[in-house]
Amino acid sequence: MRNRRISKRNLAIASTGVAALVAGTLSLGTANASTTQSADTLSAKSASKLADKITSDVKGDAGAYYDAKTKKLVVNVVDKDAADKVTSMGAEAKMVKHTLAQLNTVKDSLTKNDVVGTARAVDVKTNKVVVTADSTVKGKKLANLKKQVKAQDGKVVLKQTEGKFTTKIAGGDAIWGDGGRCSLGFNVTLDGKPAFLTAGHCTTAISSWSDSDGGEPIAESGDGEFPGSDWGIATYTGDTDHPSEVNLYDGGTQEISGAGEATVGQTVTRSGSTTQVHDGEVLALDASVSYPEGTVDGLIHTDVCAEPGDSGGSLFADDQALGMTSGGSGDCSGGGETYFMPVGPALDASGATLP
Known about the structure:
alpha+beta, six-stranded antiparallel β-barrel, five-stranded antiparallel beta sheet
């Protein structure tokens, strides 16, 4: 087999076996701020590191987010002692009503009674759990969902979206399998061999991958998980170049040097084989989405759009890999929202490393 370069400009995955971002298939009060000194100006990457340090030290953690306009880290707190500690560490303290643990308990209770076509996430900016229902949730299902939300005594808000929550089968480059197309997430190394990460709903549906429709196989699917989680790995079988970069679809690429953790409020970029490159903002972390195939937990919620065929594609910020496209609602013409599998847990579960 001839040597072929499979950068993020040549790979994307799709499958008709799941109803997600599959090519050709589309199935699915905060209180006033309290500060005692000016917060430091930070980059999103620095803010993420500071957030980890502060929230591990402060009792009654209520979450944190990055304010891209002011370039400051905002940390929610529930008492004055915590506020003083937060500001002394260089962040802005914001007094709120509920701790993150309290809101996560509410989210988890709603997930146990999950309804297909809904998503649940903690919105740290509003200090509430946001339940989003797609267009398939109506009639008795919608009425019951509204009762569940009302029973949470103001901790939950309900939003509705015109689209349907689906997985999006079809580092950005297109990868083809029997019956579908997806997008490559990130090139990695597994047991000393070159491989790539993508969405689990891609690798659990398709066993062999090519860089063209009907082309020679270049990789075989290995471990993965979907639903529950949404990650999958495939090992290259031929002499294929596998640079650690993402296709920007403008003739250039973005080098990927490591794995990062998304931060609420952070500006992020997605690359996928159907709609190419789009930017947006991280809205929430640890979100749960109930697809027709089952519920996936621990996702990154964004306002970045995606369409069938973008599944598995790269979510990144500068040179940091953040996640792979799982699914969402809407499209890139009228707007939408997309959920991503974090790259860190996928690397841990698969045993792979970024080159």
